[in-house]
Amino acid sequence: MIPKLESFEYVRGYTIRVRFSDGVAVEVDLRSELLGEVFEPLKDPEMFQRFRLDTELNTVTWPSGADFAPELLYERAAAQRTGAVTDVQQAR
Q1: What gap in Å lies between CA 29 and CA 72, rounded to an integer?
Q2: What is the pLDDT of residues 54-63, one digit of tens each?
Q3: What's the whole-model pTM score?
């Protein structure tokens, strides 16, 4: 089971900072994930920044209907945690 997404915030470009309930917290660059018709509008930086938390889906969503599977966000965050951020406090 994927831990609950507790918080997220825009950092820059196509990067968001995510934090999960198990302490995994890193910056995730989603540029390489913006593939396909549903993600095309998110290539506009202003549109990309209009994300919100969908508590039912436990993920980040956009007004265009785009979202990322929480598993993808968690896997990307967990993979980066070792090399990028080792302490939740550093991610804040």
Answers
A1: 12
A2: 988 999 999 9
A3: 0.78
